[in-house]
From TrEMBL:
One of its GO terms (molecular function) is arginine-tRNA ligase activity. GO terms for biological process: arginyl-tRNA aminoacylation. Keywords: Aminoacyl-tRNA synthetase, ATP-binding, Cytoplasm, Ligase, Nucleotide-binding, Protein biosynthesis. Its EC number is 6.1.1.19. This is Arginine--tRNA ligase. Residues 450-562 form the DALR anticodon binding domain.
């Protein structure tokens, strides 16, 4: 049952036939306050066709409508207000959720279509930054949301494992590093050489020439250069893997930039064939001035290829390999121009599917309002953030529930979950400051609050013992109404989150549902042994199902006790 559909049907029977169900559906509003009903229909647009004042039309239509299935239908001015029949509504929605369980809200909009999601994509030999965390968790959540909508996402970690920075790293390592030191703490020490390289190169520009030469060697297949590169890459990857394991994120592919080394000639050939390449100061570019974009730099003076060249090859490879219905790139807003250029060049090459490429941009995580930068060494190390969050979670658990079993494991789920939830509750384009104390609170707009609400609801169910949910699930407590309606809205929320690639829609929804349930819990005696007990418990059960689905879609765990 979909109550909005019920409203559409009731209206369709009395409205002029030329107004389609789809149009009616779009016109229906949700009143701000419950005294105006659950849904409202404005009659203004009918004034012309029906040659009457809107409030007259509303009154007339209400007179004609069949009230069956509704508590009442009335008119207020130009609006028709629909009040759903609470008993029938509750019975239908609770039965549906209990029947569907984890599948509640599933839709088949995607029809199995492939959607590569370029996500996380950190740079080898550098720590994973908070920006990469954003890409990882946003991408992971979008993948889960799209799966529930019937798509087949392919999670691709487009590792930054190629480029001139590796030339710098090799120079730095050879000058100041040692095998032992690198093996002891790979990423931090590699970063150390990199930072030192930049500092020293300020006064010694010849270092930059050396770095360029080493990168050129890599591109030409030099043995020493490549074996150092392979070593850096695999050490870095196993460090990253630790974080992915903690976040519970898996990838379908680790084809990074280097994977496209042998696929770029074909791109350059096509660009040449189509007469798109131009020479500019010895470099090869695609001129995009007609589109008000700076030129796409395809090949440098020394023949080295660039970031966008590899992205062109990657885009084409993904289209050929996955026959995607859309292709997503979860990358910070600062690369908006890059993705505009990428799409523009693909379009010029004659690939109309470039329109199916979407840059899923996101804002920065700042530190005291300042941008974080690896080059200047001003980074928040993701691992430290996670560790601190887990420690804080542990402290609060010790206070609240000292006898809890598996305290460490729960603290891990709560601490890591808090960081992830905080990231996802912000609209992705917004930048936000990161304050750990705030993020790990058990009250307020936090992940732990949602987890805690779910755990509390589960404990009510444990107290209730065995309950037989077959039978009448009519629930007309006015306190339950808000929660029931939120549960019923979930499928719409899900499809909206997918349409705009916005996990925050789910996070905000989970907070709302948790809050509404806590209000219900405060006002009603759920476990009292009377006729309404089973229905009330079925609401509690449904809340846990929907909260767990929501947390799951965000990649946040839902501990049973905390
Ligand atoms: N490695 C890049 C960075 O850290 C992000 C790569 C994004 N993906 C892509 N296909 N360009 O900035």
């Amino acid at each position: 049952m979909n109550s909005k559909k019920q409203v559409v049907e009731a209206l369709a029977k009395v409205l002029p036939a030329e107004i389609t169900a789809d149009q009616i559906n779009k016109l229906i509003e949700k009143p701000k306050t419950s005294d105006l009903g659950d849904y409202a229909f404005p009659t203004f647009i009918l004034a012309k066709t029906m040659h009457k004042a809107p409030n007259m039309i509303a009154e007339e239509l209400v007179g004609k409508m069949d009230q069956a299935g509704f508590e009442k239908i009335v008119n207020t001015g130009a609006y028709i207000n629909f009040f759903l029949d609470k008993a029938a509504f509750s019975d239908a929605i609770l039965k549906e959720v209990l029947k569907e369980q984890d599948d509640y809200g599933n839709q088949n909009e995607g029809n199995g279509g492939n959607v590569p999601i370029d996500m996380s994509s950190p740079n080898i030999a550098k720590p994973m930054s908070m920006g990469h965390l954003r890409s990882t968790v946003i991408g992971n959540s979008i993948a889960k949301i799209l799966t529930k909508l019937g798509y087949s996402p392919i999670k691709i970690n487009h590792l930054g494992d190629w480029g001139t920075q590796f030339g710098k790293l090799i120079v730095g390592y050879k000058m100041w590093g040692s095998k032992e030191e690198v093996e002891e703490d790979p990423i931090n020490n590699l970063l150390k050489y990199y930072v030192r390289f930049h500092k020293e190169a300020e006064d010694k520009p010849e270092l930059d020439d050396e770095a360029r030469a080493w990168f050129k060697k890599m591109e030409d297949g030099d043995k020493e250069a490549l074996s150092l590169w392979t070593w850096f890459r695999s050490l870095s990857l196993s460090e990253f893997q630790k974080i992915y394991t903690r976040l519970g994120v898996e990838f379908d592919s680790f084809n990074g930039e280097a994977f496209y080394n042998d696929k770029m000639d074909a791109v350059i050939d096509t660009l040449e064939e189509k007469n798109l390449l131009k020479e500019s100061q010895g470099a090869e570019i695609v001129d995009l001035s007609d589109l008000d974009l700076s030129p796409a730099l395809i090949k440098k003076t020394d023949g080295a290829t660039l970031y966008i060249t590899r992205d062109l090859a990657a885009a084409i490879y993904r289209k050929n390999t996955y026959k995607f219905v859309k292709s997503l790139y979860v990358v910070g807003s600062e690369q908006a121009e890059h993705f505009k250029k990428l799409k523009a060049v693909l379009k010029m090459m004659g690939y109309d599917w470039a329109d199916d490429i979407h840059h899923i941009e996101f804002g920065l995580i700042t530190n005291g309002g300042k941008k974080l930068s690896t080059r200047k060494g001003r980074v928040i190390l993701l691992e430290n953030v996670l560790n601190d969050a887990v420690d804080l979670a542990k402290k609060q658990i010790e206070e609240k529930n000292p006898d809890l079993k598996d305290k460490d494991q729960v603290a891990e789920s709560v601490g890591v979950g808090a960081v992830v939830f905080h990231d996802l509750k912000n609209e992705r384009r917004d930048s936000f400051d990161f304050n750990l104390e705030e993020v790990v609170r058990f009250e307020g707009e936090t992940g732990p609050y949602v987890q805690y609400t779910n755990a509390r609801a589960l404990s009510i169910l444990r107290k209730a013992g065995d309950v037989d949910f077959d039978g009448d699930l009519t629930l007309d407590d006015p306190e339950a109404w808000d929660t029931l309606k939120l549960i019923q809205e979930f499928p719409d929320i899900l499809s909206r989150a997918g349409r705009i690639y916005e996990p925050s829609v789910i996070a905000k929804y989970a907070l709302k549902l948790a809050k509404s349930f806590n209000q219900y819990y405060a006002h009603s005696k759920i476990l009292t042994d009377d006729a309404g007990r089973v229905a009330r418990l079925s609401l509690v059960k449904s809340v846990t199902i929907v909260l767990q689905i929501s947390l799951g879609l965000l990649g946040v765990k839902a501990p049973e006790e905390m």
